[in-house]
Amino acid sequence: MEAVILAAGKSTRMRSKTSKIFHSICGKPMIFYVVNALKSYKIHIVSNQSSKETLQEMFPNAKVHVQKEQKGTADALKSAIDYIEDDEFVVVNGDMPLIDRDDIEAARALMKLNNLDAVILTAVLDNPKGYGRIVRKDNCIEIVEEKNADEETKKIKEINSGIYLFKTKKAKEALPKIEENQLTGEYYLTDIISFLDSVDTMVVDFENILGVNTRKQLQEARKIIQRRIIDRFEYVTFVDSDNTYVNYDVEIGEDTIIYPNVHLRGKTKIGKGCIIENGSVIENSVIKDNVHIKPYSVIEESIIGDCCEIGPFAHLRPFSELDKYVRIGNFVETKKARIGKGTKASHLTYLGDAEIGEDVNVGCGTITCNYDGYRKNQTIIGDRVFIGSDVQLVAPVKVEHDALIAAGTTVTKDVEAFSLAISRTPQVNKPGWVKKYRKAMEKKLKEDKKS
Ligand code: UD1
Ligand code: CA
């Protein structure tokens, strides 16, 4: 079977510079979900001129047809119908990201069974506002748009979903007969019914046919898609799945626990037995097994080895690569940094453009000074190096294995293995100095008051 997705509309009700079909839901453009649900069919997409290239790039297997002027859904179908070769096809509005292929297959079976020209998928809603109403009169069906409906018609709760199955031959004959709507000047695909002989309806679950015309409906659709994504992870504990944000492409291993307000984005892959605590944002990263990520950590395009401990408040920027058992503590930022097994940077540190060995202790307040105003320079630190607190490593610089950098040192020269590097102004203690100082200052204040 072939499928036509109508996606050329102006998205007026979204009030957006971006066509609504490209608005993101759980990390994918809305149109992705429509195409994905129909992927077993040969897909045609009706697009406007400006979206054409993006759509063709996104869906190389689909045939994209351009509707030059947006003159309504019937006019949209006209731009694709000549290319349909199969005996039957389905038309779907491009703003229905929740559609289910099973509903379409059921309607297809009904069409075959009763040898119908068309089947319209409908739903019954408590609040049908905005949708076309299914009006039934002496065995005939008519669809009346909200804009064209009188008060009586508006009370009808059965609505047109925007999914239609057609016999190709019958639709090709009927489509040109549709006339312009008097009120809106548009050609309504829904008017095709009056030119067909046998049409039936099939009621489906409303959740599957929610149309996204407004930002509010976009949010409603997001909630449902989010729930569907989270339901895939049967062996993962979500402490509060209503407040957890997991993108479509994310993978999560069993026995992992995800706390509220965690965002897992892009192609992130989380291993088994991990704990991801509140407010952490992880994007396009690989987190291996038994990793503990404490609250409010941000991880982008990075790889975290088994049994690492991250955060709270850690920032792992792109190309951070942590081996096993690494500890990255609060207010530590890494970028383009390879960090060896068992190494610890527990507090207030910046490690950028660095290669750090195994079992290194990075003291509080360590900074790799990687930028000279022109280039990014590399810091290399060997295994078992001990870096005291408040150390600056002025890159490019190399500290060989088992060296010790004393607290407060500014490292500007390479350090050999097993050496101590220390750069401090010698300390001087002056006994009784404070007493003299206070006396002198108090005297000065008294003189100031007099004058
Ligand atoms: C449409 C139906 C309505 C149904 C509802 C379900 C018509 C006339 N009305 O209304 O009965 O209850 O869907 O969600 O069909 N489009 C084009 N070219 C155009 C106009 C629209 O490609 O010239 C595309 C849009 O991008 C959209 C789809 O067709 O994806 C439907 O158009 P939209 O304006 O959203 O129709 P509704 O008012 O929602
Ligand atoms: Ca719509």
Give a nutshell description of this structure.
By secondary structure, the chain is an alpha/beta fold.
What does this entry look like structurally?
With 451 residues, the protein is an alpha/beta fold. It folds into two domains: 2-215, Alpha-Beta Complex (Spore Coat Polysaccharide Biosynthesis Protein SpsA, Chain A); 235-421, UDP N-Acetylglucosamine Acyltransferase, domain 1 (3 Solenoid). Helices cover 18% and strands 31% of the residues. It has eight helices and 37 strands. The chain has a 23-stranded parallel sheet that branches. The chain has a seven-stranded mixed sheet with strand order 5-4-1-6-10-7-11, with helices on both faces. Strand 8 (133-137) and strand 9 (140-144) form a beta hairpin. The longest helix is centred in the C-terminal third of the chain and has 18 residues, at 433-450. The chain starts with a strand and ends with a helix.
* CATH uppermost class of the largest domain: Alpha Beta
Uncertain runs are none
Q: Main sheet, how many strands, which sense, barrel?
A: 23 strands, parallel
User: How much is the radius of gyration in Å?
Assistant: 33 Å
CATH architecture of the largest domain: Alpha-Beta Complex
Helix content: 10-25%
The number of helices is 8
Secondary-structure blueprint of this entry?
Elements (H helix, E strand, L loop, with lengths): L1 E6 L16 E2 L2 E2 H8 L4 E6 L4 H7 L4 E4 L6 H9 L6 E6 L7 H13 L4 E7 L8 E5 L2 E5 L6 H4 L3 E10 H7 L24 E5 L11 H17 L5 E2 L6 E2 L4 E2 L4 E2 L4 E3 L3 E2 L4 E2 L4 E3 L2 E2 L4 E2 L4 E3 L2 E2 L4 E2 L4 E2 L3 E3 L4 E13 L4 E13 L4 E2 L4 E3 L9 E3 L4 E2 L4 E3 L2 E3 L4 E2 L4 E2 L8 E2 L11 H18 L1
Parallel strand pairs: 1-4, 1-6, 4-5, 7-11, 12-15, 13-16, 14-17, 15-18, 16-19, 17-20, 18-21, 19-22, 20-23, 21-24, 22-25, 23-26, 24-27, 25-27, 26-27, 27-28, 28-29, 28-31, 29-32, 30-33, 31-34, 32-35, 33-36, 35-37
Antiparallel strand pairs: 2-3, 6-10, 7-10, 8-9
The structure holds uridine-diphosphate-N-acetylglucosamine and calcium ion.
